[in-house]
Design brief:
The protein is an alpha+beta fold. 32% of the residues lie in helices and 21% in strands. A three-stranded antiparallel beta sheet has the order 1-2-3, with no helix packed on it. It has a three-stranded antiparallel beta sheet with strand order 4-6-5.
């Protein structure tokens, strides 16, 4: 198999154009799709500092913010953050 820039050729086949762009589904394409947010994105949406988001997500917090750990990185689902906020409002 020989490779050319942005094309892949298999034996006895025509070259196929290979896209290097990453395609992410939109909420309309997949209703269960939800983007994963960084600490900075959550902070921006909540209008607080990123360091505050980190402190709220710590396990020793009285009511820790829901968090996904990806290696050493913290990631968040906005639907879980909204639920966490609403639960805090009730009780």
């Amino acid at each position: 198999m020989s490779l050319k820039k942005n094309t892949q050729v298999k034996k006895n086949q025509q070259p196929v154009k290979v896209s290097s762009a990453v395609v992410h589904p939109t909420p309309n394409e997949n209703p269960s799709f939800e983007p994963i947010l960084t600490r900075e994105q959550v902070a921006e949406r909540l209008q607080i500092k990123a360091s505050t988001v980190y402190e709220l997500a710590r396990r020793r917090s009285a009511r820790p913010m829901p968090v996904l750990k990806v290696g050493k990185y913290l990631r968040f689902r906005w639907s879980e953050i909204e639920q966490w906020l609403n639960e805090g409002r009730r009780g």
